[in-house]
Specification:
By secondary structure, the protein is α/β, with parallel strands linked by helices. Helices cover about 40% and strands about 20% of the residues. The structure holds aspartic acid and magnesium ion (MG). Aspartic acid (ASP) binds next to loops.
């Protein structure tokens, strides 16, 4: 069985929903479908929550009314028969009345989770009804019944595997199984979610749990590109990526995939294919456990990086210095991306600056601290193992005119990262594309 996940833009209009249904029903074997909320809906639901936190029911009601109108029109456009149109509109009215009920109660983060969950609940209902109207044997399974997180807010994989399999067992002989991406229950059985963009994660968890033959992530771009198409012209989709390469690219900027989502697929050995709903026959990108020797795959950039340098003569021949430095970051739950050390100093980068001033003030006990903001990490991903000679020289050589602030190589066999100023980002990406991919 294949798992197919469609993102917000792929189900963003009635027309797109119809096209998704064509894709879902084209395989002859049963498919498991994971849907996001229609694009813009999760943001609108968060805005409603924001008004409710601020005790402004009027503001919340305005957005609820706008959203309701939009969905009612969608239903009119989507269904050919009055039976399915009315059925769905009745469901939508109940949904929006439910949202209105939150304007009358005390609002907490618990209610917010319930509100944001409605986007996926609505999109999956609409698509399931459409499939049924078209005569497809489809069943809607609630993700709240089988996607669950543990006490650390991490997916509880054993639970998910057992319960996803049970869902299939209890609902045999359907052509299409549909469920919501993103939403889940937590360890206390409360409605929760897998964080923004989490539908990819849901799809990979289900694919791994069912040992499916492939997990397809359908978006509106034809796969992961070998450079940032917003900055560099002539980028191309990468045909194949090793799981680690894809994880590094997703983390370092390629927005197409949720960075941690492919871990379950990797462990289960289930390939993940990135496909484009606007161009369904394009080959896209396949992510699997094959490491292609001797190839560089892509370049990506991560913006809004802050670099911190700590210099201290106390570091010379001393031990425990790095531990003290890292503990400060840990105590403020701030993760570090790049690290470079010398005998008298350490430079590192962070992207979350919400505790920067506290961190800096503690660091000053240990040395002289300097901060540079507006930096960018440029990462080159591919086979960068040590017996693959030449690529590092080519990458470095391409940057001969760029003032590089830090270089990190050897952390894994798949990545070399350069820290440059934001002003030099475009030149860096272009130079690397030219040198590595002859673009
Ligand atoms: N609807 C959620 C979001 O907008 C989850 C997703 O689309 O993956 O973040
Ligand atoms: Mg997404």
């Amino acid at each position: 069985m294949k798992v197919m996940k469609f993102g917000g833009t792929s189900v963003g209009t009635p027309q797109r929903m119809k096209e998704v249904c064509k894709l879902i029903t084209s395989p002859t074997q049963p498919t498991f479908v994971v849907l996001s909320a229609m694009s813009g809906t999760t943001n609108a639901l968060l805005e409603i929550s924001d008004y409710l936190y601020k005790k402004n029911p009027e503001g919340a009601n305005t957005i609820i009314n706008q959203l309701e109108q939009k969905y009612m029109l969608h239903a009119q456009e989507l269904y050919a028969t009055s039976e399915y149109c009315e059925l769905t509109q009745k469901f939508l009215r109940e949904e929006f009345n439910y949202l209105r009920s939150f304007t009358k109660i005390l609002f907490t983060s618990f209610e917010e989770k319930v509100i944001v969950a409605q986007g996926e609940i609505i999109s999956t209902n609409m698509v399931t009804n459409y499939l049924k109207e078209c005569g497809v044997k489809a069943v809607l399974l609630s993700a709240l019944d089988f996607i669950r997180t543990d006490k650390n807010a991490e997916p509880d994989f054993n639970y998910i595997r057992e319960h996803a399999q049970k869902q299939l067992h209890d609902n045999p002989d359907y052509q299409v199984y549909i469920t919501q991406g993103f939403i889940c229950r937590n360890a206390y059985s409360e409605i929760d979610n897998l964080l923004r963009g989490g539908s990819d994660y849901t799809a990979c968890l289900i694919g791994a749990a069912l040992q499916s033959e492939e997990i397809q992530i359908w978006t509106d771009i034809d796969g992961m590109h070998n450079n940032d198409p917003r900055v560099v012209e002539g980028t191309k989709p990468v045909p194949q990526l090793y799981f680690e390469e894809a994880a590094e690219l997703a983390y370092f900027g390629a927005k197409i995939l949720h960075p941690t989502c492919i871990q379950p697929a990797k462990f289960a050995g289930v390939p993940v294919r990135l496909l484009n709903t606007m161009d369904p026959t394009a080959p896209g990108t396949i992510i699997n456990n094959e490491m292609q020797q001797g190839t560089l795959k892509a370049v990506a950039a991560k913006d809004d990086i802050t670099c911190i340098q700590i210099q201290s003569s106390r570091m010379l021949l001393a031990h425990g210095f790095l531990r003290k430095v890292f503990e400060i970051f840990e105590s403020y739950k701030t993760s570090i991306d790049m690290v470079c050390t010398s005998e008298v100093g350490v430079s590192l980068t962070i992207d979350n600056t919400s505790h920067l001033s506290d961190i800096l003030s503690e660091l000053k006990q240990y040395g002289t601290v300097q901060v540079e903001e507006d930096m960018v990490i440029i990462c080159v991903v591919g086979d960068l193992s040590t017996d693959n000679v030449g690529f590092v020289t080519r990458a470095c050589d391409a940057l001969r005119d760029v003032p590089v602030r830090m270089i990190s190589y050897g952390g894994s066999n798949h990545n070399i990262s350069f820290l440059v100023r934001k002003a030099d980002k475009k030149q860096t990406l272009q130079a690397l594309s030219q040198s590595l991919f002859n673009a």
